[in-house]
Amino acid sequence: MTTAKKYLNLLKEREPQLWKEPMEESTFTEQDLLIIEKGLGYALPIPYREFLLSCKMPEDITVLVSFCGDSFANSWEQTFSREKNAYVSRPEFDIGPTVEFEWHNIAGKNGEEFLENLKKEQSVQDALPCFLEAGFIGLGNVYGYLTYLDLVNGGIVTIHEEGIYDMLIDDGVNWESAKEVRDYMESRLYICKNFNDFLRFTCTGDFLDENEAKFPTTEELDRDYSY
Questions:
Q1: pLDDT score of 205 more than 60
Q2: CB–CB of 25/57 below 8 Å?
Q3: How do strand 78-81 and strand 86-89 relate by DSSP bridges?
Q4: 10 Å Cβ neighbour count for 57?
Q5: Could you give the CA distance from residue 176 to residue 19 in angstroms, rounded to a whole number?
Q6: Please, which of 2, 34, 130, 135 could form a disulfide with 50 given CB 3.0 to 4.6 Å?
Q7: CATH superfamily assigned to domain 3-211
Q8: How far apart are CA 178 and CA 200, in angstroms?
Q9: Cα(37)–Cα(44) distance, rounded to whole angstroms?
Q10: Torsion angle, CA of 113/129/34/112, rounded to 10 degrees?
């Protein structure tokens, strides 16, 4: 069993309501992935390839994720309560907040459909940066932070929605220049080292130190993060 399938099975057990129908095997083949890679001009990171070959994912789902680093965890004053099904004020002492991650998956029964939908969704319009041409596939949104898979180094990078304005206006990045967009995004916060870590983050509820892009052990959480 691949790492992707293992984490998705855990998510299915943890949040069965996310699947309206039984989990189905992916219809993608290796040839489909080659079509996607040729159309993008980038190789797909191995963990992402395994994910696409694992099973059919709902197009849009919301999962609960937890942070414990200095960037997000220290700046968010609320946490999501399963009991109240709403955001509540964080207690005086905790490890970090739990928040909703809006996870978006690209629809498509084969490589051609996936590529067409991806390019349509991430087309450069209204002065939005050419993220896809620069090698970034959108994965979703967490508390206003847009989250992307970096096809070059395989990591998961974030930028706040308002940060795009800063990127284009204050920092003068040419929104049509793939090189300038890539150079800028590589200076942003990478919260996961690879797509398997992203799956652990979204599927298990384990605390993620977004600054270090790591999952602290229970001992580390008790010793270094509980304050």
A1: yes
A2: no
A3: antiparallel
A4: 21
A5: 38
A6: 2
A7: SMI1/KNR4-like (3.40.1580.10)
A8: 30
A9: 6
A10: 10
